[in-house]
Design brief:
Organism: Flavobacterium cupreum
CATH superfamily of the largest domain: Histidine kinase-like ATPase, C-terminal domain
Structural class: alpha+beta
Strand order of the largest sheet: 5-4-3-6-2-1-7-8
Largest sheet: 8 strands, mixed
Protein name: DNA mismatch repair protein MutL
InterPro entries: DNA_mismatch_repair_CS, DNA_mismatch_repair_MutL, DNA_mismatch_S5_2-like, HATPase_C_sf, MutL/Mlh/PMS, MutL/Mlh/Pms-like, MutL_C, MutL_C_dimsub
Helix content: 25-40%
Shape: extended
Family: Belongs to the DNA mismatch repair MutL/HexB family.
CATH architecture of the largest domain: 2-Layer Sandwich
Distance between the termini: 78 Å
CATH topology of the largest domain: Heat Shock Protein 90
CATH class of the largest domain: Alpha Beta
Number of helices: 18
Radius of gyration: 40 Å
Keywords: DNA damage, DNA repair, Endonuclease, Hydrolase, Nuclease
Strand content: 15-25%
Length: 636
């Protein structure tokens, strides 16, 4: 009987391993950039074409490889990073399993050029699908250059699963940003289809973050710095007022390696407790340094998940350090019991005692006496300096006194008041009878006039109908109305715009600007008018009529969040996604008070839609309750 179990050929094993290591062009970018960093390079260039599907090339000025190493680096599990199993717990490099180059070479056309500094000549190797095509000596500069062409050329099924160029380019951009942020001491350059996307000279962490995220990132950053025996935390968090809807600008780096950790993210959110709006996400760039023997990196194929020995302590330290930074830079409200120096007594007044003011009063003055007494008061006031006047001002008061003509005694004002009051009370009053006229409306009109809508808990609108009543969800109903309006405007291209007196300048990161550039034609059909678009901001001079100026930033931010996974390929799907996103942003929210007129307009607008039964997100917009159903409730 023949054996059933057989060893796989190397090229088949490499293709299977490539399924874990290489999922898309961004995976190739990550592996090649990390190899360049491990080679101690100070200048790294990334060149891609067609979002990496046609070409991914990484050029560095690192240590390079000898002829033997150049040939051996494509073998499976061949690595220079570790020698024994214990080295896995003291890793200081990016890659260590020796699978990347072998997996990439198995599914692409690969070309490598490398040369060490002490050697006069370098090595040029060409591989296609794990097969060595050529190896020759060449005159090369110091360092290594990897060019990966026609990815998945021998696995068409995998190639068909790749997304559009826009989506794949965004994944490549993410991997480049992660490596560039972790190593600000290295000069990075990024080219796509011949255009320079990034040119990041060696700098500090803050300069590197601003260079990658662009816009007004610098004014958003709050530094975080904490050193303990367990962990050293440094980096930046963003102020709460700049929080976004999506989680795009959230980066954790442990020992210069990008990781994803929901546990540590919860610690950051706990530090922002009470400072963020519902659904908002803070941006942060945190660089953690821990002893290598306290973490386990080799638990995920992409090495983006790490196991910590003492997660609870890291959680507490991270949360406290961020909360301290927010309070230190007056971002978070704090109680300050220190004395305000501005309220202290000035130094030259410290030992002086205040003088008690003296007041002189003329005890003989009576306003109800005759004119002679007033003349006496005037004389006494002029001589004594009335009301505390100083001696130098005595006599000046008499200049303001004037003679008052004698008037009747004040008692005469009340003479005859009682008799007049009695005459008023005894006067007869006549009342005009109200004439009752017939109603202007018949009974049916009165019944219809009484019918109206009611708002319950600022969430539902109740309106009576013939068979009972209808209960409308105000948020979902408004979403359906706005969705159909936007979709109609984008289809017919007859959207109205309102011109702004002062154009809006909105700042975004470079990858967000790339997305906005692709969305611009669709946004213009909804009523937006763009004046210009720079590398880090856009200028909007006109907006749709049903959007206020203060809502523009919120609408675009929500749109970018909804399209972070990529823009649909077809124009209808793209318009549908934009209409849904804008409807979700602008719809009246649960908890908003609506006037009676607004309630009527909302109900009438809903039932004027083509499909009033469901919202754009396939949720019911209203329910009906018949009178029979209500009677059954009371019959129990």
């Amino acid at each position: 009987m023949s054996s059933i179990i057989q060893l796989l050929p190397d090229h088949v094993a490499n293709q299977i391993a490539a399924g874990e290591v290489v999922q898309r062009p961004a995976s190739v970018v990550k592996e090649l950039l990390e190899n360049a960093v491990d080679a101690k390079a100070t200048d790294i260039k990334l060149i891609i074409k067609d979002a990496g599907k046609s070409l991914v090339q990484v050029i560095d000025n690192g240590a390079g490889m000898s002829v033997t190493d150049a040939r051996l680096c494509f073998a499976r599990h061949a690595t220079s990073k570790i020698r024994q199993a214990e080295d896995l717990f003291s890793l200081h490099t990016k890659g260590f399993r020796g699978e990347a180059l072998a997996s990439i070479a198995a599914i692409a056309h690969m070309e490598m050029k490398t040369k060490q500094d002490q050697e006069e000549l370098g090595t040029h190797i060409v591989i296609e699908g794990s097969k060595f095509i050529s190896q020759e000596v060449a005159v090369l500069p110091k360092g290594t250059s990897f060019a990966v062409k026609n990815l998945f050329f021998n696995i068409p099924a995998r190639r068909n699963f790749l997304k559009s160029d826009t989506v794949e380019f965004r994944h490549v951009m993410d991997e480049f940003q992660r490596v560039a942020l972790a190593h600000p001491n290295i000069h990075f350059t990024f080219y796509h289809n011949g255009s320079e996307m990034y040119n990041l000279p060696a700098a500090g962490y803050r300069q590197r973050i601003v260079g990658i995220m662009s816009g007004k990132t610098n004014e958003k950053l709050v530094p975080v710095n904490e050193e303990t025996e367990i962990i050293n935390v440094q980096g930046f968090v963003c102020k709460p007022e700049f929080a976004k809807k999506n989680r795009g600008e959230q980066f954790f780096f442990v020992n210069d390696r990008f990781i994803k950790s929901g546990y540590l993210h919860h610690a950051v959110m706990a530090a922002y407790d009470g400072l963020l709006k519902d659904g908002s996400q803070p941006s942060y760039f945190l660089f953690l340094q821990v002893p290598p023997n306290t973490i386990d990196i080799n638990i995920h194929p992409t090495k983006t998940e790490i196991k910590f020995d003492d997660e609870q302590a890291l959680y507490a330290i991270l949360r406290a350090s961020i909360k301290h930074s927010l309070g230190q830079f007056n971002v978070a409200p704090v109680l300050d019991f220190d004395r305000d120096a501005n309220l202290d007594t000035p130094y030259h007044y410290k030992d002086l005692e205040g003088e008690t003011p003296t007041i002189q009063v003329d005890g003989t003055f009576n306003p109800f006496t005759d004119d002679k007494t007033n003349q006496h008061y005037s004389k006494s006031g002029s001589g004594s300096g009335y009301a505390g006047s100083s001696g130098s001002g005595s006599g000046s008061y008499s200049g303001y006194s004037k003679r008052v003509e004698p008037t009747a005694s004040w008692e005469s004002l009340y003479v005859g008041l009682e008799t007049e009051t009695e005459s008023i009370e005894s006067a007869p009053f006549t009342f005009e009878n109200e004439e009752v006229t017939s109603s202007l409306f018949n009974d049916e009109d009165v019944e219809q006039a009484i019918q109206k809508t009611y708002q319950i808990h600022k969430k539902y609108i109740v309106s009576p109908i013939k068979s009972g009543m209808v209960i409308v969800d105000q948020q979902r109903a408004h979403q359906r109305i706005l969705y159909e309006q936007f979709l109609l405007n984008m289809t017919v291209n007859q959207a109205s715009s309102q011109q702004l007196l002062f154009p809006l300048n909105l700042f975004y990161s470079s990858d967000e600007m790339t997305l906005i550039e692709e969305l611009k034609p669709s946004l213009e059909t909804t009523g937006f008018v763009f004046d210009e678009a720079q590398t880090d901001h856009i200028v909007i001079s006109g907006i749709p009529v049903n959007i206020t100026e203060s809502e523009v930033s919120m609408v675009i931010e929500q749109l970018l969040s909804d399209l972070q996974d990529g823009i649909p390929a077809s124009s209808y799907s793209q318009n549908d996604t934009i209409a849904k996103s804008m409807a979700k942003s602008l719809a009246v929210k649960t908890g908003s008070y609506l006037t009676e007129k607004e309630q009527d307009n909302l109900v009438n607008g809903l039932f004027a839609c083509k499909d009033p039964n469901i919202s754009p997100f396939q949720k019911p917009t209203f329910i009906t309750m018949r009178v029979e159903d209500i009677d059954k409730k009371f019959a129990l």
